[in-house]
């Protein structure tokens, strides 16, 4: 039998994959990477997983004291602690997911240099690890709002899941973009740190979106409120804060178009991120 008679249809060409679609085919590898990420997070740490509560707790009290007490924001927003914390934990999730996805390839350089596997596994596993670390903070929020009278409904749960999915999608897209560039140009990490620093201030978390509407022209406000981060945070306000105050979160007049724009931007970010990732991954091993 000659070589040309051998059926090669069951074999994959080395180094050539289907991008994010391969992540679903390599679920076992994905589980291993997620397990590795969670196991090494607090290795040799005395407090361990307690840090998942301590750090957001300290951040919350700092913002609550400065913004809520010193600047009197708590007088203008009912149950301001719930308003603040429900948005804060979502922004924290984005920052961790985005940051981890950006450094995922570099931190796994040993695997990237030695064997071939779908490189998208690394940023995707980073997003999942961030989601696992998000759960303790979400649990605290649930306990607080239930004590204050929040009753879960299908609508509120769906809105919360949608907000989290929007944030995760946006973080994945940006993470693949900057993660791919970061392998060759480490300046990308500095840009990521700037974006993460600005994230909390670019969302209606420590203030209401009405304050931004009062100081920005309409076109600029539409850009601001079409930010997936802003829409995700407002979804969490709708899901957790609004029921506590026995009402619904007030949205801007064109909010539906803002939501459509935010979802479109998140999906477009993933597409562009995948294209950039596939372009740069050809030289990952050499650049590392």
From TrEMBL:
Q: Where are the transmembrane segments?
A: 53-71, 83-106, 127-151, 157-182, 194-212, 255-277
Q: Name one GO biological process term.
A: response to antibiotic
Gene Ontology MF: a single term: ABC-type transporter activity
Q: Where in the cell is it found?
A: Cell inner membrane; Cell membrane
Q: Which domain of life is it from?
A: Bacteria
Tell me, in one coarse class, where this protein mainly resides. membrane
Protein family (similarity comment): Belongs to the ABC-2 integral membrane protein family.
What is this protein's name?
Answer: Transport permease protein
In its UniProt entry, the species of origin is given as Aeromicrobium piscarium
């Amino acid at each position: 039998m000659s070589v040309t008679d051998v059926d090669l249809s069951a074999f994959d060409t080395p180094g050539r994959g289907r991008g994010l679609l391969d992540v679903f085919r390599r679920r076992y590898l994905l589980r291993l990477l997620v397990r590795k990420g969670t196991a090494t997070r607090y290795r040799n740490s005395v407090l361990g997983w307690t840090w998942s509560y301590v750090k957001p707790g300290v951040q919350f009290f700092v913002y609550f004291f400065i913004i809520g007490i010193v600047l009197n924001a708590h007088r203008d927003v009912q149950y301001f602690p719930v308003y603040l914390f429900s948005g804060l934990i979502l922004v924290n999730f984005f920052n961790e997911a985005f940051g981890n996805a950006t450094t995922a390839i570099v931190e796994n350089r040993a695997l990237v240099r030695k064997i071939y596997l779908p490189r998208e596994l690394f940023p995707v596993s980073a997003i999942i690890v961030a989601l696992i670390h998000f759960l303790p903070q979400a649990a605290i929020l649930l306990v607080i709002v239930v004590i204050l009278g929040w009753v879960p409904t299908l609508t509120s749960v769906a809105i919360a899941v949608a907000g989290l999915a929007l944030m995760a999608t946006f973080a994945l897209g940006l993470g693949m973009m900057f993660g791919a560039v970061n392998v060759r140009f480490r300046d990308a990490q500095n840009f990521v740190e700037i974006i993460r620093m600005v994230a909390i201030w670019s969302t209606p978390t420590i203030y209401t979106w009405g304050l931004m509407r009062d100081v920005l022209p309409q076109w600029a406000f539409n850009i601001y409120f079409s930010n997936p981060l802003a829409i995700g945070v407002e979804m969490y306000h709708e899901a957790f804060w609004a029921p506590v105050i026995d009402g619904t979160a007030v949205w801007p007049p064109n909010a539906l178009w803002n939501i459509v724009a935010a979802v479109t931007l998140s999906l477009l970010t993933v597409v562009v991120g995948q294209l950039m990732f596939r372009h740069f991954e050809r030289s990952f091993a050499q650049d590392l």
